[in-house]
Design brief:
The complex is a heterotrimer of chains A (264), B (337) and C (326).
Chain A lengths: L11 E10 L2 E11 L4 E6 L5 H8 L7 E6 L2 E2 L5 H7 E4 L11 H7 L13 H13 L15 H14 L4 E5 L7 H16 L4 E5 L3 H7 L2 E6 L2 E6 L1 H4 L2 H8 L4 E5 L4 E5 L1
Parallel strand pairs in A: 3-8, 3-9, 6-7, 7-8
Antiparallel strand pairs in A: 1-2, 1-4, 4-5, 9-10, 11-12
Chain B lengths: L1 H29 L7 H9 L5 H35 L11 H14 L9 H23 L7 H25 L1 H12 L7 H20 L1 H7 L3 H6 L4 H23 L5 H13 L3 H26 L7 H19 L5
Helix pairs in contact in B: 1-2, 1-3, 1-13, 2-3, 3-8, 3-11, 3-12, 3-13, 4-5, 4-6, 5-6, 5-11, 8-11, 9-13, 12-13, 12-14, 13-14
Chain C lengths: L1 H23 L7 H6 L4 H36 L11 H15 L4 H24 L6 H25 L2 H12 L7 H20 L1 H7 L3 H6 L4 H23 L5 H13 L3 H25 L8 H19 L6
Classes of the chains: A alpha/beta (264), B mainly alpha (337), C mainly alpha (326).
């Protein structure tokens, strides 16, 4: 089960990154390389800078200093669409215009692959079909988004990001507001993408146990600084969690799954 | 602890603003073709002796300034309530069709020969009735269906009815030059020639409306969070949207009756208040009331002195002074952008 | 799916029907059969070919342009109440027009359209420049549009308050928007002016589809959001500015046509743009026909009639959707 990849050339690397909105510095001097073909989870309290880091990784926020490197090349040298063919980001709580069907939404994911005036191609169809299948949305493809349950809607959005066919997928709180069954669904989907699709997935999560159970790599933030990172069982230490989350948990090592859990 | 300190600061600033409004209002009474001292103004109000000066102050200047205060406070409060109830920053009392309804009623009253005698003070009643009927019609149209007056339905209904009435009004005015000549100043919003009787006729309505809005200000904060949250907190959105409409009609209807369809204050003053004090309607409402009153009186003063004309429509000066300030706020103070 | 297309096909069939009606109806009823056979008098031919046909075509064109401009505005602003006027375009055109009508009485017939155009574009440019601070945001554009619009309207109000009453009356008619004085030259001019921006809008319909999702989603999919928004606002201004020059200020078509079209063909812009154009063109052509015949010989400006026809229609739509949670 457990796999901790350390590929020779890291895909996404953040170097001495400082991020700020106007005058408020959110992230300071962050160094981080995202392991390739693995599931990385960013943990930390609200406002610790996790979402901000994701935004910087796709160029939605320009770093105040430092660089984001994609295959050893600064992100700023990538064209916007070129970048969108490599990294996809699903922001937190996205809102779709009224009246859209699932397929309408997924088709938007093809945007960066289509030359400005090109017609819809069979390749685009293939990508959409694949995304529909992976997310098990085939039967729902023509349904209006408004009529879907929360979990289905979230899967539709993930399908849009999948249709983007990037090797790196960033998800900002993909399980928030979902019930337990739907959360498990999303987690299984991510595991499938990483194990079978060889994708690199980075997600911001709030459930520490969920992260410990599914992630290959965990990064913990506190107030814009990296506190600890590594394989789940190395990071899940009482001291670290007390420091990052201001709670005092029990750590339980479950022999059957070889995962550590916290009890608050 | 920080919250308490902030509240105290906001209260202090509000009192300062209120004091400023009183001083400026007194100054506005004193200022004019025959300037008076503030002492003379005080004497005329509190120790009236029937002299010509005192007559000028109490019969001409005072009603005009009072009208300005009432109109400004009423429109700004109504605008803030509208924006809280609809959650749309584009909402203003005009969106409920209040202005269009009042204008249509006034022009109908003037254009139809049978009631053609109606002039001056008579317009006030027609304007109020027109505003009230239209406001409630918009509310009824916007409340059709299962979940009552949702903001979007209300706003669309308002747009439909106002556009319809405005077109009818324009159609009448295009063909009736005489009526156009008489009402064109009224349609731009004007304080000139308002008598103490006019002011007194409207004051109780505005007073009741303002007291109600200020007492209920916490409710509007809750309402502004949207139907789901306010409902979850135990507030009935249906009931409170209806109360909002009643208050807006009361306040804005009175203001339109007194000064004609004055735009801008109702739309912009709540934004100004929000940009200054944040999103809490407990503060937006009182600041809007005081700020609106101040803004209209200042605008009228400027209009009177700058253009040396008693007739210069206050609605125009308002926009000329207010718009640049608003632009500055929108450019530099807009949050989250 | 089917009823959608039934509605839009019906609308498409209405265009030639309305066009024929526009040619036949008026102060003088024209027998088209006679005209086609060549039996009509020269006078009748002049009425049809030089007056009624250009006028109907102009209404169609201007309405189409407004429908497209409105669709763009609602998508870019992400506000269902947005119309081209929200960019301050109408207020700017009105102010410039009022200066010409009141200040330069002799010139006004020829200069008026251009003044309107200059006013509209200057205003849109000012709104856009003032809202630019390391990029734009829909919220800021809307607020700045309100502010500048109020400023320009105040200028127009001064004219209305103090100018000669006859000028004010002419100004009111122009402000109401009417297809007065249409001729073939103007149609060619309008066509030439519209063809480039409308082609561009239709070519880039995918950009409009995407920008509706909000800045974060659109940008993470690789759209240059600020560039697209700027470009679309520019095109929207060019299109609605052109209609101001030929038809004055016609409100409401830009607001209502996209809403009607969306009910017929759904939210995708590949179909929504042409459908809005069709609905807008129909609406304005019908309004102009009604306006010039209903109380003939007096002519009601088309802008007024569009609202009188369109408002109840929108109310009917609201009634139909009254149980839809919104």
């Amino acid at each position: 089960m457990f796999r901790h990849d350390n590929a020779a050339t890291p895909g996404l690397v953040l170097k001495n990154l400082t991020l700020a909105y106007d005058n408020a510095t959110i992230v300071q001097g962050l160094d981080l390389s995202i392991p390739q073909g693995a599931f990385t989870v960013l943990l930390g309290r609200n406002g610790s800078g996790k979402s901000t880091v994701l935004k910087a990784c796709v160029g939605l926020l320009r770093p105040k200093s430092g660089t984001v490197l994609l295959d050893d090349r600064p992100l700023s040298q990538f064209g916007v669409r070129e970048r969108a063919r490599r990294i996809a980001l699903l922001p937190q709580g996205p809102v779709a215009p009224e009246g859209l069907s699932v397929l309408d939404l997924i088709r938007q994911g093809r945007y960066p692959h289509r030359p400005l005036l090109a017609r819809w191609s069979p390749l685009d169809d293939e990508a959409c079909d694949e995304a529909l299948e992976l997310t098990r949305m085939v039967d729902l493809r023509d349904r209006p988004l408004e009529n879907l349950s929360g979990g289905q809607r979230q899967r539709a959005w993930i399908a849009m990001a999948l249709a983007q066919q990037t090797d790196i997928l960033l998800l900002d709180e993909p399980t928030t507001f979902l019930d337990l069954a739907h959360q498990a669904e999303v987690m299984d989907l991510i595991t499938t993408l990483v194990d079978r699709g060889k994708k690199t997935v980075v997600a911001v999560l709030h459930d520490i146990n969920q992260a410990a159970r599914h992630a290959n790599h965990i990064v913990m933030f506190k107030a814009g600084k990296l506190v600890s990172q590594g394989a789940p069982n190395d990071v899940m230490k009482r001291e670290t969690i007390r420091n990052v989350f201001d709670i005092d948990p029990e750590i339980i090592h479950d022999q059957k799954t070889n995962a550590k859990f916290i009890l608050v | 602890m920080r919250g308490v300190g902030r509240d105290r600061g906001l209260l202090l600033a509000l009192l300062v603003l209120l004091g400023l409004a009183v001083v400026i209002a007194a100054q506005a009474v004193a200022m004019g073709t025959t300037p008076f001292s503030l002492a003379q103004v005080g004497e005329a109000i509190f120790a009236f002796d029937g002299s010509r000066d005192h007559l000028v102050i109490t019969m001409l200047r005072l009603p005009r300034v009072l009208a300005g205060l009432l109109v400004g406070a009423a429109l700004a409060a109504a605008g803030a309530v509208m924006q809280a109830a609809t959650g749309n920053p584009l909402a203003s009392p005009g969106l409920l069709g209040i202005n269009a309804g009042a204008a249509f009623a006034v022009i109908l009253a003037m254009a139809l020969p049978t009631i053609g005698a109606a002039t001056g003070g008579g317009l006030l009643g027609y304007a109020f009735i027109g505003a009230a009927i239209t406001g409630f019609a918009v509310h009824v149209l916007g409340s059709l269906g299962t979940n009552g007056a949702t903001p979007l339905k209300l706003v669309l209904a308002g747009a439909v009815i106002s556009t319809f009435l405005t077109s009818l009004t324009t159609a009448v005015l295009i063909f009736d030059q005489a009526t156009l000549d008489v009402v064109r100043l009224w349609t731009l919003g004007s304080l000139s020639g308002r008598t103490m009787n006019d002011v007194m006729a409207v004051a109780p309505f505005v007073g009741i409306g303002l007291v109600a809005v200020l007492l209920l200000r916490a409710q509007f904060t809750t309402l502004s969070l949207g139907a789901e949250i306010s409902g979850g907190l135990g507030q009935s959105p249906l009931l409170w949207r209806t109360i909002s409409v009643v208050l807006v009609v009361l306040l804005a209807g009175s203001a339109v009756a007194l000064a004609g369809p004055v735009g801008f204050v109702g739309l912009v003053m709540p934004h100004v208040a929000r940009l200054l004090v944040g999103a809490d309607y407990r503060w937006i409402l009182p600041y809007s009331v005081v700020g609106g009153a101040l803004l209209v009186v200042v605008a009228d003063m400027v209009g009177r002195s700058l253009f040396a004309s008693q007739d210069f429509p206050v609605g125009v000066t308002l926009a000329l002074i207010g718009a640049p300030f608003f632009l500055w706020l929108a450019r530099y103070r807009l949050r989250g952008a | 799916m089917m009823p959608r297309y039934r509605a839009i096909s019906l609308a498409a069939l209405l265009v030639p029907a309305l066009l024929l009606a526009s040619l036949m109806l008026g102060d003088r009823h024209v027998d088209l059969a006679a005209l086609i056979k060549g039996e009509a008098t020269a006078e009748v031919r002049t009425i049809v070919m030089d007056l009624r046909l250009p006028r109907a075509l102009m209404a169609l064109l201007a309405g189409m342009a407004l429908g497209i401009a409105g669709t763009i505005a609602q998508a870019v602003m992400r506000n269902p109440l947005a119309e081209p006027g929200i960019l301050g375009i109408n207020a700017g055109a009105a102010f410039a027009g009022s200066i010409v009508i009141v200040g330069f009485t002799g010139l006004s017939v020829t200069v008026l359209p251009w003044a309107g155009f200059v006013g509209a574009t200057t205003m849109a440019a000012a709104v856009f420049l003032l809202s630019w601070r390391k990029g734009t945001s829909s919220a800021r554009i809307v607020l700045i549009g309100i502010g500048l619009g109020a400023f320009a309207s105040a200028g127009t109000s001064v004219m209305i308050a103090f100018a000669d009453i006859a000028d004010v009356q002419r100004l009111m008619i122009w402000l109401a928007g009417s297809i007065y004085d249409a001729n073939w030259d103007k149609i060619c001019l309008l066509l030439a002016w519209l063809i480039v921006p409308i082609t561009l809008v239709c070519l880039f319909y995918r950009q409009i589809d995407l920008i509706r999702f909000g800045d974060d989603v659109a940008a993470s999919l690789g759209q240059r959001v600020n560039l697209v928004r700027a470009g679309m606002i520019l095109l929207c201004t060019a299109i609605s500015g052109a209609t101001v020059t030929v038809a004055g200020l016609i409100g409401f078509v830009g607001l209502i046509a996209p809403h009607l079209a969306r009910r017929m063909v759904g939210p995708g812009h590949a179909r929504l743009l042409p459908a809005s154009a069709l609905v807008g063109g129909l609406l304005l052509m019908a309004a102009d026909l009604v306006g010039r015949t209903i109380i003939a010989p007096v002519q009601l400006p088309a802008g007024i009639v569009t609202a009188l026809i369109g408002a109840p229609f929108l109310a009917y739509l609201l009634w139909g959707r009254r149980h839809v949670p919104a």
